[in-house]
Every structure is written in C-alpha cells, then in structure tokens.
Design brief:
Blueprint (H helix, E strand, L loop, with lengths): L1 H17 L7 H32 L1
Amino acid sequence: MVNGGFFILHLIFFSANAIKLMDGGWFPLLIAGAFAFAMLTWRKGVTLVEKARTVLSV
C-alpha cells in the first residue's frame, strides 16, 4: 500500500520532468548513472576481494 503511494509520487515527478530531458535534463541523469555504475562496480569488487581472501587464508 505504501509502496504504491511512493510509486505514484515518483511517477508524478518523472512525468513533470520528462519534458525537460531534451533541454539539458539528460546531463544530471548521465552523472547519476555514472555514479551508480561506479558504486555497483565497487561493491562487486569488494565482494570478489573478500571471497579471494577467504579462499587464500584457509
């Protein structure tokens, strides 16, 4: 129930800002995507390093 309310709120914000994408709104999305990619890559790398350390220490 609560998630549906948040979804509708986000849909309203998205639709209000969707018309601004061609006028430069794509740039903040590009920056956010780059940061998200970097953080997800970092998290995956930390997981792989932790697995390698546990295998080597045993």
